[in-house]
Amino acid sequence: MTTHKDIYILGIESSCDDTSAAIIHNGKKLSNVVANQEVHKAYGGVVPELASRAHQQNIVPVVQQAIAQAGIDKEQLSAVAFTRGPGLMGSLLVGTSFAKSLALGLNIPLIEVNHMQAHILAHFIEDEAQTIPNFPFLAMTISGGHTQIVKVNHHFDMEVIGHTIDDAVGEAFDKSGKMLGLPYPAGPIIDKYAQEGNSTAFPFPKPKVPGLDFSFSGFKTSVLYFLQKQQKQDPDFIAKHLKDICASIQHAIINILMDKLKKAVKETGIKEIAIGGGVSANSGIRNALKQGESSYGWTTHIPKFEYTTDNAAMIAIVGYLKYLEGDFTDQSITAKARFSI
């Protein structure tokens, strides 16, 4: 029987196109192995059928590596935590089935994890490179599939107070990049060029969305019309102004996010801010949040890069927190493509 002094949690993440496994020991990361799927680049986006096949190939070696890098034996594991959802059903099924089988074989508890909660609770991994937020705090989760503002009262007491009514912010970056002829995923490339461009060169309109909700479909359309108009006058417009266009797109997206975050702080009175999700790796967003500390008196928590994109360390830390509460699931559990916080 594992005592509370020695808890080893194996986390498994397979919600989209990254297969990941990690070991958390008493809240600290011992390993965090991620296998990326290069196959999707040729298609300009994730192909679900190809993703699930790649997960089947990757999951055993990735889990083996995570356990080996942690320097433990699988018999030392206290529980297996896995992403139940949200995500691509085919991908989720691979991770869910493997986690259930391993937990059954080792006769240890099984812990289901909500992927979106995990992006928020990644801040609770004990790591010198990041700070742990105090409750209550506001979390902005920004990724290829999600854009949310969440009021976090406790680890598992969360309330979504704002979300996108159409496209996610990561999709806005990637689709804008596709229009510019950039490879998938375009977000990191736009960020790189934006750092060398003029962010006020080309103003884009802000969507008028009530409350704390977001919309990015109209923004994408405005980018498309802008580029079409400019290319009619000058076919080489994109090549000549690429860095300024990227900087302007990034500037507009960051303004949309920050406006809603400022509104959420004003409405809730909470000045403790945390970000999570793949788009939180964006340098412009990180800088804007840091500026908010001096401009608005916020305390900001920005995750280590390793914990921003889909990874199993965030799944394992949720598993650890649930293990402490005795919150386990049984073998009848099934994956859920749609799974709200």
Describe what this molecule looks like in 3D.
With 341 residues, this protein is of the alpha/beta class. The chain has 2 domains: 8-124 and 308-325, 2-Layer Sandwich (Nucleotidyltransferase, domain 5), CATH 3.30.420.40; 137-302, Nucleotidyltransferase, domain 5. Helix content is 42%, strand content 18%. The protein contains 9 helices and 10 strands. The strands form 2 sheets. The protein has a 5-stranded mixed β-sheet, sandwiched between helices. Helix 3 packs across helix 9 (312-325) and helix 4 packs antiparallel against helix 7. It is globular, with a radius of gyration of 21 Å. The mean pLDDT is 93.
Percentage of β-strand residues: 15-25%
Helix/strand class: alpha/beta
Q: Roughly how many Å is the radius of gyration? A: 21 Å
CATH level-4 homologous superfamily of the largest domain = ATPase, nucleotide binding domain
Quick one: overall form?
globular
CATH fold name of the largest domain:
Nucleotidyltransferase, domain 5
Output the strand order for the largest sheet: 3-2-1-4-5
Question: Which stretches are low in confidence, meaning pLDDT under 50 for 5 or more residues running?
Answer: none
Largest sheet: 5 strands, mixed
Secondary-structure element order, as H and E?
EEEHEHEHEEEHHHHEHEH
**CATH architecture title of the largest domain:** 2-Layer Sandwich
Tell me the count of domains.
2
Q: What's the total number of strands?
A: 10
Task: Tell me the helix content.
Answer: 40-55%
**Distance linking N and C termini:** 32 Å
In the CATH scheme, the class of the largest domain would be Alpha Beta
